Amino acid sequence: MAILVFADQHNGTFPKSSLEAVSYAARLAQTTGTTCTALTTGPVEGDGGLGQAGAARLLVTDLKGQDSQQLTRLVLAAAEKEAAHIIIFSHDLMGKLVAPRVAARLGAGMVSGATALPAVSYGFVVRRHVFSGKAIADILADTEKKVITVTPNSEGIVMTGGAAQVESFSADLGEARTHVRETRTESNEHGIPLPEADLVVSAEIGRAHV
Length: 210
What we know:
Blueprint: E1 2-6, H1 16-32, E2 35-41, E3 57-61, H2 68-82, E4 84-90, H3 93-106, E5 109-114, E6 125-130, E7 135-140, E8 146-150, E9 165-168
Parallel strand pairs: 1-2, 1-4, 2-3, 3-9, 4-8, 5-8
Antiparallel strand pairs: 6-7
């Protein structure tokens, strides 16, 4: 039994949000007495740093493209292989597309946008923001299987200095129904996407009315 985390990568590099999701899953695995297995698509060099973020194993598939239905089948196949009872995603576009499908197929309870590690001493209580961040809700996930998406920049990354065992993985994913022709990433003048920045400063200039 393991905790499975889907780690999206861009051109062989894992963004901060993926490393955060892996670190979150690894710390949860330590709390629940199990192990953390990461799953990714496309080629990566070594373990891509996921071992340092806490992953014990890394499953790599050669799936190309971002078809959400194929990714759903991929995650389900990996979850079955690993006997995973908890599946973690980053609360990004891919997580929002795939996580609900995975939860529905598994009959799993789902908490989206988690901002803290689950409180397992109280059953399995996951904290998240509600009402556009104006309030906090504690969600009890009492199903056997659980799916969680983790809000970026909420828990940070805890580096363990380890290395993940890398293994090739394949599954019957069917035909892709969605084909991405071009991907454009918005960033600031230094080329760092805003979700990846350690510090974001903004200011509002007011106008005086006489």
